[in-house]
Design brief:
Length: about 180
């Protein structure tokens, strides 16, 4: 079973985070919502409170397949300011392990130098933060171990791309049909 960590911080975009959690769980993945705060309760960008599954320091990341960063403001900045998360992202990149970010969150990868020479996309207005990336406007962009997406409206195709990477295109298509996406 694939294991995915979706990081939450106050001000994260709820739909971007929860769509990934929901669709990947439907596909059979173990998905942990990980709080980078001191507590499990996180308040999203639109004042929706949720309870994360685990605190950052409680998780063993050795067997995690994908790290996922939802966007939203100030959630993206709160994720970016978490030194241990930034260190983990660098570690995953050095090992060529999968990292995914949507909306404003790809700026974190850009600022950490993880997008150098890679194709990437983000929410309009954050392109200057994708340092040394080849900018794209596709809804979802995968380049090697990095997957990026543009925002709330692209959350479903973003999650389906991650399912495809973990379980194959057939499984992604099965989930797509089951939620009546694009029909």
């Amino acid at each position: 079973m694939a294991k995915i960590c979706v990081f939450t911080a106050d001000g994260f975009e709820e739909i971007e985070g929860l769509t990934v959690v929901d669709l990947l769980r439907r596909a059979g993945a173990e998905v942990l919502m990980v709080s980078v705060k001191e507590g499990l309760t996180v308040k999203g960008a639109h004042n929706i409170e949720l309870k994360a599954d685990a605190l950052f320091d409680e998780v063993c990341y050795e067997d995690v397949d994908i790290l996922v960063l939802p966007g939203g403001m100030p959630g993206t900045l709160n994720l970016r300011n978490h030194e241990k998360l930034c260190g983990l992202l660098k570690e995953f990149a050095a090992k060529d392990k999968k990292i995914a970010a949507i909306c404003a969150a790809p700026m974190i990868l850009g600022e950490l130098g993880l997008l150098k020479g890679k194709k990437a996309t983000c929410y309009p207005g954050f392109e200057d933060k994708l340092t040394e990336a080849e900018l794209c406007t596709d809804r979802v962009v995968r380049d090697g171990n990095i997957t990026t997406s543009r925002g709330l409206g692209t959350a479903i195709p973003f999650a389906l791309e991650l399912i495809s990477q973990l379980y194959g295109k057939e499984k992604a298509e099965e989930i797509k049909k089951s939620v009546i996406y694009g029909h």
